[in-house]
């Protein structure tokens, strides 16, 4: 799925209805099924039934002017491995020794295995598993951190879908008061953010800018000026809050104008600008009174310190199991009342 986060909500509305229609058509022959966002996994008793369901799925999707991705669509025999072998090998590499430490040679193997598997599968999933393994091993407390950090910096430049995991690991290290490679991360952030702004890749730019801010890395380049010119409201809103919090020393030129719209794509930027006294311009549009009500109470929608305070606890994971990829009962109590940064 491509597009801003709001598309996820729209996608879920459409695909939930599609789920119901598919169930009405062939639900009686489906052994088990699950959908993860826009990926379907359906179990049938025979290849014939699999072909039939696949045909019905194509027809149902066509009603919504959607199509299957033929490159990702396959029928697997029940005799094939349930889990990818590369994933099993990757987890085996990260086994701790009797002192609860992942040895250097195992780290080297796990990194090599993840990169090779990512290339082979044309997916960033192996990289995400690698980073989650780092979290489980609490690599941010390890003497091997410098070695691992250098590889993370190299990996995120080629595997952008794993950038959030990488940023959370580094932020965890920083929250514990341990040293990180600030110059290296600033250089990596400049490369990724500049590229992302050019290609309009919001996800990578937001996460890398967030990392610089929460890790108190001094931004000495013209990066804020480039971000100020971005069309992405979330990125611009983060920039304003960073300036208000003293994370960015030079006031960015946002070009907000003499009135702040409450109905266009910049409503978030405008609300934060007024509520944080970045701009004194009046609101305009049908929600002006509501926005005035919020701004007059100086609401704070972006809190950089909240996340750092939360993960400063040694027992808390860097990567939430409920927010970033899969569920884990051990995390439910910790994360029940906490919203992660995005």
Structural account:
It is a single chain. The protein is mainly alpha-helical and 342 residues long. Helix content is 54%, strand content 4%. The protein is built from 15 helices and four strands. The protein has a two-stranded antiparallel sheet. The chain has a two-stranded parallel sheet with strand order 3-4. A hairpin with a 2-residue loop joins strand 1 and strand 2.
**Which structural class do you get from the secondary structure elements?**
mainly alpha
Question: Strand tally, please?
Answer: 4
Order of helices and strands: HEEHHHHHHHHHHEHEHHH
Tell me the span between the first and last alpha carbons: 18 Å
Beta fraction: under 5%
SS field, number of helical segments: 15
Q: What helical percentage do the residues reach?
A: 40-55%
Residue windows where pLDDT falls under 50 for at least 5 positions: 323-340
Strand order of the largest sheet: 1-2
Mean pLDDT: 85
Principal-axis shape equals flat
| Whole-angstrom Rg | 23 Å
Biggest sheet character? 2 strands, antiparallel
């Amino acid at each position: 799925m491509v597009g801003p986060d709001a598309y996820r909500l729209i996608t879920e509305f459409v695909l939930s209805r599609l789920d119901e229609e598919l169930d009405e058509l062939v639900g009686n022959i489906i052994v088990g099924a699950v959908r993860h966002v826009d990926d379907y996994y359906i179990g049938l008793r025979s290849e014939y039934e699999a072909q039939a369901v696949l045909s019905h799925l194509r027809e149902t999707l066509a009603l919504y002017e959607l199509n299957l991705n033929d490159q990702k669509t396959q029928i697997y025999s029940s005799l094939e491995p349930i889990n990818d072998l590369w994933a099993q090998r990757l987890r085996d590499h990260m086994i701790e020794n009797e002192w609860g430490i992942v040895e250097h040679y195992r780290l080297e193997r796990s990194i090599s295995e993840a990169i090779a598997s990512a290339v082979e599968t044309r997916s960033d999933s192996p990289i995400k598993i690698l980073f989650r393994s780092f979290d489980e091993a609490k690599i941010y407390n390890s003497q091997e951190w410098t070695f691992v950090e250098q590889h993370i910096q190299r990996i995120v430049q080629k595997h952008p879908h794993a950038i959030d995991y990488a940023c959370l690991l580094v932020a965890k290290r920083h929250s514990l008061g341990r040293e990180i490679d600030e110059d290296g991360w600033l250089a990596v952030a400049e490369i990724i953010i500049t590229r992302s702004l050019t290609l309009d890749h919001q996800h990578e730019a937001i996460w890398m800018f967030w990392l610089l801010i929460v890790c108190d890395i001094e931004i000495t380049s013209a990066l804020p000026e480039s971000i100020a010119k971005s069309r992405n409201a979330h990125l611009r809103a983060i920039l304003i809050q960073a300036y208000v919090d003293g994370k960015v020393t030079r006031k960015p030129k946002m070009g907000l104008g003499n009135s702040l719209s409450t109905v266009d794509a910049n409503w978030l930027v405008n609300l934060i600008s007024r509520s944080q006294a970045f701009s004194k311009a009046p609101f305009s549009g049908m929600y002006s009174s509501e926005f005035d009500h919020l701004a007059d109470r100086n609401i704070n929608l972006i809190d950089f310190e909240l996340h750092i305070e939360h993960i400063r606890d040694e027992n808390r994971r860097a990567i939430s199991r409920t927010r970033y990829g899969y569920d884990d009962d051990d995390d439910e109590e910790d994360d029940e009342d906490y919203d992660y940064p995005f």
